[in-house]
Design brief:
The chain has 172 residues and is of the alpha+beta class. The protein contains nine helices and six strands; from the N terminus they run ααααββββββααααα. The chain has one domain. Helix content is 42%, strand content 12%.
């Protein structure tokens, strides 16, 4: 069972390198977000500066009021496209240093969605940012998936504070 508080090392054990269609569909229609430690790792792998990596190969994305980088998506006039690091003949060209979200993307496994949720909750939901919590709440209310330990009461255990956040009261 995948839970919010699982260690990254345990999550990575559930993910294995896979080139099946279910696992590469994300590479062909977008890209995975980078955890903070992915930026220096990817820059080192590519033998370029972090600045050059951000300027030439990454784009910013926002989810739950949190900004992260992801590899640029080559859209070619469409709202989606392939990851800048994906070659249809070779696969992922940065496989050894691929972003955490990409490394745990397992579309062919029944727990693939839970892995994705683990990443989202641990990388994008900020319990100290009221707007992040409100947006996460809206996601859950609209049918978004959660995992054990990622319910609102787990994210913000202080009931009074959670109530204030969700009622849009100013927090001190």
């Amino acid at each position: 069972m995948i839970t919010k508080d699982m260690e990254k090392s345990d999550v990575l054990k559930l993910a294995h390198p896979c080139r099946c269609r279910a696992c590469t569909v994300g590479c062909l229609h977008g890209s995975g977000a980078l955890a903070d430690e992915d930026v220096p790792k990817l820059a080192k792998f590519l033998k370029i500066s972090e600045k050059k990596l951000r300027d030439e190969f990454l784009e910013e994305v926002e989810k739950f009021n949190t900004r992260k980088f992801r590899p640029k998506v080559l859209r070619k006039g469409k709202p989606y496209g392939r990851c800048i690091f994906y070659d249809e003949g070779k696969g992922c060209t940065v496989h050894e240093a691929k972003p955490l979200e990409c490394a745990i993307a397992m579309g062919c496994k029944p727990y693939g969605e839970e892995l994705s949720t683990w990443f989202t909750v641990n990388q994008f939901v900020d319990p100290h940012d009221a707007e992040s919590v409100r947006q996460y709440s809206a996601y859950i209310k609209s049918g978004g998936k959660t995992i054990k330990g990622a319910e609102l009461k787990d994210i913000v255990p202080d009931e009074k504070r959670l109530k204030k956040i969700l009622s849009y009261e100013i927090l001190k």
